[in-house]
Amino acid sequence: MPQGPEPTRSGQRDSGRSDVDEWGRSERVRALARRIYGPVYSRWFRTEWEGLDKIPDAGGALLVGNHAGAIPNDAPVIMHGIETELGRPVYGLADYFFRSIPVIGTLWSRAGGVSARPDNAYRLLRDQGQLALVFPEGTKGPSKPYSDRYQLRRFGRGGFVEIAMRAGVPVVPIAIVGSEETMPVLWQVPRIARALGMPYFPVTANVLVMGPIGAIVPFPAKLRLRVLEPVTFDVEVDQDRYPKSKVMEESERIRQTMQAALYDMLSHRHSIWFG
Fold first, then answer.
1. In whole angstroms, what is the distance from residue 147 CA to residue 150 CA?
2. What pLDDT score does 199 carry?
3. What is the pTM of this model?
4. Domains of the chain
5. Cβ atoms 90, 113 nearer than 8 A
6. Which of 3, 30, 98, 173 is the 20 to 30 Å CA partner of 67?
7. Where does the pLDDT of residue 12 fall: very low under 50, low under 70, confident under 90, or very high at 90 and above?
């Protein structure tokens, strides 16, 4: 029986008609995004990594990072850096809200965005051996005021740990310094957020300084990222459920490790703009 085209490393199929994989990711769109975002990554944010060698060069891994800035720049920076430095695609797991926005939802999907559902994460990690990126703070991270910068919010119910256990992959924490200053939240307007159906509606320092364009233009804070030691779990894979106490314990341990790394990085930072 004739066989279909084989998937490539990024999960795509070699096809003359389309390069869009089952998740909606398009390598052509990612290539365009890398060209456009390259100067932002290297010149605007002047991004520096520490410990990139701790990210596996093959097989699945769940990357987790701290989330900040009214429009977070941490996700595109991580995805761009790993793809350009290591040559591995990264699928960003995010709230379905983004997928539901016309045009933006399609672009987000083509650029590697996937709805953060457990089954999606499992298939990416276990079945396809991909790198998946998640921010356990959810919207609590980017919506927090600047006065609470670098104070990690609770990591939900530890769902990311349970997915990693089930898929049998490591969790690779990434601590990010600089994203808090790219688009600091001064206060929120809950009434507008509810009217627009948004998780939050922030008023940022960028808007006060730059006017309307500040709604999308970040400040040029220097971004530093530190990849921490991968965390593995001594549990049997593919179980329907895992002890909640174990899941929450591991989740909190990862949160505390990331918090300590952030404090250490901040203690060595001399300038928001120059690092």
1. 9
2. 84
3. 0.89
4. 27-186+220-267 (3.40.1130.10)
5. no
6. 30
7. very low
